[in-house]
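User: quick one
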Amino acid sequence: MPDFIKLSALLGQINEAILTSFDGEVFWVAARIMNVKKYTGNRRCYLTLEESDNGNKQAEIKAVFWANAYQEIEKFEKITGQVFRDGIEIICRVKVRFHPVYGLNLDIVQIDVAHTVGTLELEKQQTLDRLLKENQATIQLFDGIYRTYNNRLPLPSVIENIALITAPNSDGQRDFQQEIRKNRHQYTFTIHEFLTTIQGENAHQLITEQLRLIEESELPFDVVAIVRGGGAQSDFKPFDNYELSKRIAGFRIPVFTGIGHDRNQSIADLMAREQKTPTKVAALFVDHNFEFENNLMELKTRFLNLVKDQIQTAADKLTNAKRIVKLSSPQAILNRGFAIITINGKIITNPADITAHTDLQTLLRDEIIYSTVSKKVKDEKKIIL
Amino acid sequence: MKKKLSYSQAFAELELLVEQLEDGGIQLEDLALKIRQANGLIEICEDKLRKINKDANEAVKPETVKDKK
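Assistant: Done. Structure below.
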């Protein structure tokens, strides 16, 4: 029988060797995370760190976030806006640990979130550049603002029919519906829900599919709302997808996004009209209709004021005309002390018709004087006038 | 015939008569007739103005049932 030692003795020696080299040491390593298993209850996360070169795996090791490092995952998700899940490349700070039963492990104590943010930003910029390059008819960039066919579509004066893309039984769905229902102006809207998963690997395809259904629908939608509740677990990645963003940019009905992320702006947000949260999207629809009602009331008031002004002007002119007519009547002339002279009932306006001895009648306010002219001379001194 | 006149037509005729009165362009013997015509036109204009005013006042009344959309 050969000399042997116990397995535990061997592993103890291995442990000693590892401790000698690595005890107290920490390393920053770049790797892709796979097989991520999060246990939120006891705040642990088990995963593997991998490295590949042109598809060939070069290295792999088990890793773990213990409870005292679990907040690193939460921080990562909050800042980057994406779920900590398989396939993500990260840079993390690790300690090497060996256990006779559980083997060799890396304890992850920190994630370089800035690196991931940088990587995501780079990917995002590449997608934006591609969108601009390949969709010049529908997407343009002016002064740092993306102007798309969709976000420049005029809104109808009144929004009535809403196509709502959201996840079933989600916070986003509830918040949106609630804000619409309890609007203080009591406006009514018709909301058609297009329910789908809007997180995860295929979310962008599922949302794109809902847009197709909306486009093919015979319902006259005024707007499309894509909404989702926020929170640390929110996954922003589907909304940075090229195909979905392209679809939104060229969509023929105005699209509004309320995907609940305060820090970042997704590409989908840039292609559509962004309102951050489901509640804000709903409030905007209500405000839009309120503005229309206000404008209408203002227009009505202005119109009626103009009508009233015109009526007043007409009434003033009429009053003036009436006054002149009244003053011009023969009776008014007589009332002012003038007289009208007639010969045989015919009004005399030409003094030449009167000579000495002519019989004439002088009409006064209440009486007629019958007389015969004894003498007629020119009024050289203009006695009256 | 007068009933068919619009406000503008009636007032235009009235204005013409007023101008003639102001200019002394109406012979005294025609005056009574012209004054009667003017008073007829004034009556038409006043009727129409009253109606327009009434319509305008009704239009400003608040709606009893708000048709919200």
